[in-house]
Prior knowledge:
The chain is an all-alpha fold and 265 residues long. It has a single domain, classed as MetI-like fold, CATH 1.10.3720. The protein has helices at residues 6-35, 52-56, 59-91, 95-110, 113-123, 135-160, 164-171, 176-205, 208-213, 221-230, 234-264. The longest helix is centred in the first third of the chain and has 33 residues, at 59-91. The mean pLDDT is 85.
Amino acid sequence: MLVHSRTGRWAAWGGFLVLFLPLFALPLLVVVAASFSTNWSGALPSGPTAGHYGAAVRGESLQALLTSLITAVTASLLALTIGTWAALAGAALGRRGRRVLEALFMLPVAVPSVVVGLAVLVAFSQPPLLLNGTRWIVILAHTVLVTAFAHQSVSAALRRLDPMYEQAAASLGARPSYVLWRVRIPLLLPSLNAAAGLCFALSMGELSATMMLYPPDWMPLPVRIFTATDRGSLFTGSAVAVVLMGTTLLVLLALSRIRTKATFR
């Protein structure tokens, strides 16, 4: 830590706990507690049970979880491909060109996600490209929403790369394509893994745009949680939310292991 005195460290940890517990930990603990309860009429929940998780891991909830995983993985791969390609292309532009490119990619983040959902719905509800009512319109909206984060992550990593490695490879006669795939991309692997994890987490939790676009046979898990709580099934919805958090955390932990190996390499 940057604080060297014992009193300063204790004060820093105390300030962290004061801010972390009520703002981040407490809401998650409330959801977890509700998922194991049948009633909550007082200060604490009552009627402990694990039965809500039976409904959370089978039937429509399980199908919604698979839908979210497929949507998030597909959108993350598309966003990572598009964002990386744009970042590599933008690195060759001048300062003004890079700013324009970054502004274009950040535009979907600068407006509410429900606006992005409406824009996608209007744009792809008529021929020649009719996606309304299909799973692809949901995947497309998620891709649009998360590509900006992939682009920004890779762009920042490119600015930190030492050009010495690329120059050394080029001076030895390596073709530009060889330098890209055998030098530049391997050096970007930690940032690519981090961007993939961020895109996946954001896609798994996306609700606003998804509510406007999802067809009946392609309901992601956040929509399932919203519909369950909207009907008054708060405790079942809490269990489904815990399943969503746990699944997302497991995938992010797996990606962090890949990132660690890439960093070591």
